């Protein structure tokens, strides 16, 4: 279902992920598969960046940049160790 959502993701999340200075409606986001720190990630074009990944079976992280994704995954991993 999330792959089907990709075509509407920009419109649905525009208020959260609109790049600074962007005006109007977001473009149709085109996603590709990438690997970040051994994590399968879907990434949109750089002009309107959105990254998302399932970091566990029941946790989806959606963000606009690789650094934030790495920080979230690191903190989630540390929280699991400290339990």
Structure notes:
By secondary structure, the protein is of the alpha+beta class. Helices cover about 40% and strands about 25% of the residues. It has helices at about 1-15, 65-80, and strands at about 30-35, 40-45, 50-55, 60-65. The N and C termini lie far apart (about 30 Å).
Quick tags:
single chain; 83 residues; alpha+beta; 2 helices; 4 strands; 39% helix; 25% strand; elongated
SSE layout:
Layout: H1 2-17, E1 32-36, E2 39-43, E3 51-56, E4 59-63, H2 66-81
- Nearest-integer average pLDDT: 89
Kindly estimate the percentage of residues that lie in beta strands according to DSSP.
Answer: 25-35%
**Main sheet record:** 4 strands, antiparallel
Catalogue the unreliable spans: none
Structural class from helices and strands? Answer: alpha+beta
Question: Could you state the order of secondary-structure elements as H and E?
Answer: HEEEEH
Topology, number of strands: 4
Number of helices: 2
Q: How far apart, in Å, are the first and last alpha carbons?
A: 32 Å
Helical coverage, percent range:
25-40%
Radius of gyration: 14 Å
What general outline do the C-alpha atoms trace? elongated
The strands making up the biggest β-sheet line up spatially as 1-2-3-4
